[in-house]
Each structure stands twice: as structure tokens, then as C-alpha cells.
Amino acid sequence: MNRATHAAAQPLRRATTSTLAVAIACGVGQGVAASPDETARVLAGLVPAPGFEAHARAVSERWDDYERRIGRPMREWARAELGTAAGATVFYPFSGPDLPTVAQLHPEADRFVLVAAQPARAPPGRLAPESLGAFRRAWERYARSGFFNTKDLDRDGGGLGPAGLLMAFAARLGYEIVAVEPVRLAAGGADLALHPGDRAKPATWDSVRFALARDGRAVRLDYVRLDLADANLAADRAARAWVERMAANPTVIKAASHLPQRPRFAILREAILAHSPSVWQDETGIDYALLAGAFSVQLYGDFSRPNRLFAPGSQAALAAAYRRGEVQPLPFRVGYEKHAGSTVQVAVRDPRFLEARLAERLARYERRPRKLFVSGRDGDDYVTALKAQVAKAAAPIAARRDSGRAALVTLTLAPDGSLRELDLDRSSGDAAFDRGVRESVRASGPFPPLPEAIRSRADLLVVTLQLPER
After folding, report:
1. CB of 129 within 8 A of CB of 54?
2. Among 143, 142, 169, 135, which Cα is nearest to 63's?
3. How many CB atoms lie within 10 A of CB 438?
4. What percent of the chain has pLDDT above 90?
């Protein structure tokens, strides 16, 4: 048995008769509180406690299918293709509760840092079989695709929230859960610190830390709820400092809705490009043209165009690189379904060009225009008037929308009010509707010049709007 298979099979061997007796004795099957590790193993289907037998069978079947199609091939590929990250911290922005991917790519890391938009929620301490339907649906969706859909997480969080999913994943990956604690950013963004708030309040559990153990080695798993957009990081110095520190570590980006390519995620993108020693990403990560400028990049799998929900021109440089470059096979599925299958880029820092690239990037950073980021919900008079002007032009297309369909767009305005850029940040799922929204926004101009209060603070105004507004 190889090392990866040993790690995956370890919890099965731990589920002995005595362990089952402990689970029954502590009353997991009767809705009584259990330890985090015992709860995790019941959730993961490793301990078929009384009343949870059907749950254990369903969860185990889905995990076995995931292991066959994604998990085991990913571990074997990583062992052959990736350098060791022994003792390292691995940074995974836009992750959701996707522990399996980062743990299988870098099994020897000492710390995993996952950053997502959804609150972690308190770890489940009491389970009842009838309450786990949403958890199993989330588990099944992940086992099928290898990633989480943001809408699903926003809607029900897998029933038990990211914390519950992370606990079950940790158990399946062979970790023992030693402790679960709420955390928050420390002063100045130096790192994370234990949250001093009331643990009975949900807000205390926005971010969590799991103390894990496997093969006699301590491992830390941090799940941090944080908005990674420029508007938040520019306003929150501690959050920005922390993100820039985390970006100095090996980085994983997958199923990120192409957000790292958007103008409003420049702070995170620049931090990774400037400081990360390596990046593992699919097509939704950093634009390939930028990545190849800072790293030596090896391509795996295939890529011609993005998933149909995203702009067709996304990652044009990546598609060109696949047509002309040296490409290696990829034996497992990654990310969104696409015409050409799955793509992975493994980027390693090239020290020969590092100093020159950094100097060039710093000079470009100093020359870039100042931007003020706002949303349509901000109460500024100018933004309110702008929102009304755009909404009026978009009214005809909004009237034809289907069942609450909406698109998220970002406008970048010059000081004279001219439209400098227009980005579709989130598709409505209907190409014709998206096209109508973009055309309506362009037709709603010209816009008034930016007021002095804005021009004194920024060279460009960046406004994000949902059309139609709900």
C-alpha cells in the first residue's frame, strides 16, 4: 500500500468496535453532544452509529466514487509532479470548505489557510439522522464535481455550514480533530488570534481554526471568512496586511469564478504575483499572461475556452499557450465543465527574472490611477443618481427577465464621467440577457462628471451594480 492510500485508508482502520462503542456511549445517535472528532467521524460515515447506518452508507458510497475519479489520481499526480511543501503554509483563496484538494496536493504541509465568503458556523455538537439531508446533498455535489457552488453554500451551507463539511473531510483524509476554536484577525493583521466573543453567538464563529493530528504530526487548518475584493482590503488595513502575508506562501486557486482576473481583485492578485513561491490553479485563477510574466509555468490537461457561464474571451492567452506549448496529461477532473476538459497550471517562481519583474511591477503600481470602489447600495448622491440613470435604461430588459434573473456588472468611470470599462462580474446564466444588460448600461450614458468630493480622492470611480435590482 502506497503512502497516499495508507493516509486515505487510515480512518477506516480506526473505526474499530471500541470506537463504535464510544460513539454509542456518548449518544451521537440520540442527539446528544459528542467530541468534535467523534462527530466528524459520524458525519463522514466512518462510524455507523445507531440510526445513522443509511447515512454512513450514502456518504461512504459518494466518497468512494470521489476517491476513484478525483482523489486518488490527484494524490498520485501531485506526488509525481509537485515539489514538497513539508512544513509549509498553503494559501487557498476562494476555497469554500474544500479541504480535500489542498490536503491532497500538499499532504506534508503544516498549515492550510482557506478563505471564503461564507461564515464557518459553530461546529455541530449534536446530530440527529433526520437533520443531515442538506449535508448529504452538499457532500454528493462535491463528490461529483470536486468543488462547491457558491450559490449552494450561500443557500444552506451544506446544512451544517462549512465547519461541518470541513470536519467530515478531515476525518475522511485521516486526520484526528483535536480542537475547534473560533478565530479572528489579530491587531494589524499579524495573523489570526482566538476570538474572545461569546461562543453561543453565531457571529463569533465566522472563522474557525481546527487543530488536527495525523501520523504523529500536528496540522493547523484555518477557515477564514473574508471579502477579498479591493473595496474591502483597501478599507481594512489589517485584512490587507494579513492577505499579503498569506500570499507569500504556496497558493492554490480553483473554481474561483474567474474573480482573480477581475479589476476589483487587483490587491490579492498583485500580492500573489509578487510574493508567492508557487501557484497551482485552474483556468479561473490569475490571467495566464500575468502568471507567465512572473513564473515558469507548466501546463497540464487541455483548455480552449471557459465554461459557458463566463465571458468567452477569458484566458485567451492561456488558450493560445495550450495551442503552441508543451502540455502534460492530467489524470483527474478539475473545476468547471468545459469543452476541452480540465486544465491545471503549475507556476514556480523563476529567480532569474524576479528582481526585474518586481521593479517593473512596482513602477507600474506607482503610476496606476487611484480608484474608489463603491456598490449600488452606497448612499452617495452621485452614486444614487448614477444607479437610477442605469436602472432606467435597463428597465426594458429587466421587464423581460425570467424568474428573478439578474446580472452583476462593474462600471469604471473617468473624471469626466465617461465609461472607461464595463465588466460582467456575474452572469445571469442567459447570454442574451447578459448582452442586453451590457448594451443597456452603455446606452444609459453619458454620465455627469465626477463631483469634486470623489475627484479629490480618486482618479477613477468603480461602481458595482446588480441589474435589475432585487
Report:
1. yes
2. 143
3. 18
4. 62
3-state DSSP assignment of residue 174? coil
Select the more confidently predicted residue: 30 or 96.
96
Nearest-5° angle of CA 389, CA 395, CA 400? 160
**Is 3.30.450.20 the CATH number for 371-467?**
no
Average pLDDT of span 370-396: 85
Length of the chain: 470
Q: How many CB atoms lie within 10 A of CB 305?
A: 18
Q: What is the pTM of this model?
A: 0.71
pLDDT the model gives residue 337: 79
**Rg of the chain over all Cα atoms, to the nearest angstrom:** 23
Q: What is the mean pLDDT of residues 448-468?
A: 91
Say what the pLDDT of residue 435 is: 87
Comparing CA positions, the residue from 223, 301, 288 lying closest to residue 258 is: 288
What distance lies between CA 305 and its chain's CA centroid? 21
Cβ contact 427:310 at 8 Å = yes
- pLDDT (0 to 100) of residue 184: 97
Strand, coil or helix: 122 = coil
Structural domain spans, the chain: 371-467
The β-bridge relationship of strands 217-225 and 460-467 is unpaired
